[in-house]
Amino acid sequence: MLKQSDAISLHCALNKKTENILNKSNLKLIKKNAVLLNSARSELVNLNDLYKICKKGGIAIWFEAIEDKKVRDKFRKL
Fold first, then answer.
1. Are 53 and 28 in contact (CB under 8 A)?
2. pTM of the model
3. In terms of Cα–Cα distance, which of 15, 20, 78, 22 is closest to 51?
4. How many helices, marked H, and strands, marked E, lie in the chain?
5. Please, what is the average pLDDT of the chain?
6. Strand pairing of 7-10 and 60-63?
7. Which among 77, 57, 61 is positioned nearest to 69, based on CA atoms?
8. What is the pLDDT of residues 32-53, one digit of tens each?
9. By three-state DSSP, how is residue 62 classified?
10. How far apart are CA 56 and CA 65, in angstroms?
C-alpha cells in the first residue's frame, strides 16, 4: 500500500508496537512526491530515517508536533 499511496496519514496511539512504525525499511517504499501526514505522536516515525529521505527530495511531510526542538529545526531547514 505504501508504494501506491499518494497520501499516508497516521492516527494511532503511541505504544511499544507503534513506536517507529515507519522507519527506513518502509519509508523507502513510499513513492516520490507522496504526502505523509502525522497527526499523532512524532515517535511513530523514525525521524532520522525520515529526514534522510526528505533531504533527498523524497516525500512531503506534515507533523502536528515534533517535540524535540533540534529535530524540529532540522526539518524546517529542508
1. yes
2. 0.84
3. 78
4. 3, 3
5. 89
6. unpaired
7. 77
8. 889 999 988 889 999 999 999 8
9. strand
10. 22
Give the CA dihedral 59, 71, 25, 39, nearest 10 degrees: -60
CA dihedral 4→59→45→24, nearest 10 degrees, is: 80
Nearest one of 9, 14, 7 to 67, comparing CA atoms = 14
Who has greater pLDDT, 17 or 57? 17
pLDDT for residue 58 is more than 80: no
Cell output for 14:
503511541
- 3-state percent helix, strand, coil for the chain, nearest multiple of 5: 30, 20, 50
What b-and-e string marks burial along 48-59, b requiring 16 or more CB atoms within 10 Å of the CB? Answer: ebbeebbeeebb
For residue 56, the one-letter residue type is: K
- Count other C-beta atoms under 10 Å from residue 67's C-beta: 10
